[in-house]
Write a structure and sequence with these properties.
The chain has 235 residues and is α/β, with parallel strands linked by helices. Helix content is 34%, strand content 22%. It is globular. The model has no long low-confidence stretch (mean pLDDT 96). The structure holds iron/sulfur cluster. Iron/sulfur cluster (SF4) binds at residues 28, 30-32, 35, 37, 40, 75-77, 104.
Length: 235
């Protein structure tokens, strides 16, 4: 089976535990205002690789993975190519490599359910904790990631919730407390991480000739991030 791939990162350290080979899949049905990778949106523009070809690249890096590392599928939205992702993760599992899925959780179907059978860890982006914000700034209902989270919980798949903090949109106490409650009410959630919104992607938007929707928002101050993390209880 083949998949559309945007790019590879051989020694990633921010997308899951340890040192990881990160595969950025092409294609995403959402249009988040804070998106860092608008160049991954269109499925057909990616390069085509077979799962065996990708595995070969992963195996070349496995000596660096150590005890904790492995492979992470990110994007774009990896659930859009769930059948390919499942095949690749199955090959990784056969080779004894830890598998991690970095997703918005916006798609649910039988292929996705099958992908979860070979997924060791999920990094689930909960972009907001409010239905209106999801509709307005993401382009889907909050019901979709919540449904996905419920499925992870049902299967007992270790999950890390992640949220990008965007000043004036979700840097409020109410939002953090709702996020915390979401984590507490799902036993699959092992931790919750807050990430500061950054604008390093602005040049990508410029070169693609499309306006960056969140150009007016600032990167949150370190003190603010610390205060929100304190509230969440992850320090
Ligand atoms: S889900 Fe990810 S790749 Fe898709 S638009 Fe949102 S931030 Fe971008």
């Amino acid at each position: 089976m083949t998949g559309h791939i945007h790019s590879f990162q051989s020694l990633g350290t921010v997308d899951g535990p340890g040192v990881r080979f990160v595969v950025f899949l092409q294609g995403c049905p959402l249009r988040c205002g804070c998106c860092h990778n608008p160049d991954t949106w269109e499925l057909q523009t990616g390069k085509v690789f077979s799962s065996e070809q990708v595995l070969e690249k992963i195996l070349r890096c496995r000596d660096y993975f150590g005890k904790e590392g492995g492979v992470t599928l990110s994007g774009g939205e990896p659930l859009l190519q769930a059948a390919f992702a499942r095949e690749l993760f199955s090959l990784c599992k056969e080779a004894g490599i830890h598998t991690c899925l970095d997703t918005s959780g916006c798609i649910w179907n039988q292929e996705v359910a099958s992908l979860l059978k070979v997924t060791d860890l999920v990094l689930l982006d909960i972009k907001y904790t409010d239905e209106e914000d999801y509709r307005r700034y993401v382009g889907c209902s909050m019901e979709q990631p919540l449904r996905f989270l419920a499925e992870l919980d049902k299967r007992g798949i270790p999950t890390t919730l992640r949220q990008v903090i965007i000043p004036t949109l979700n840097d409020t106490e109410e939002n953090i407390l709702r996020l915390k409650a979401m984590g507490k009410s799902h036993s699959c959630v092992e931790k919750t991480e807050l990430l500061p919104f950054r604008k390093i992607c602005e040049s990508k938007y410029n070169s693609m000739g499309i306006p960056f929707p969140f150009a007016q928002y600032e990167t949150p101050a370190k003190e603010k991030m610390n205060a929100l993390q304190d509230l969440l209880g992850v320090l």
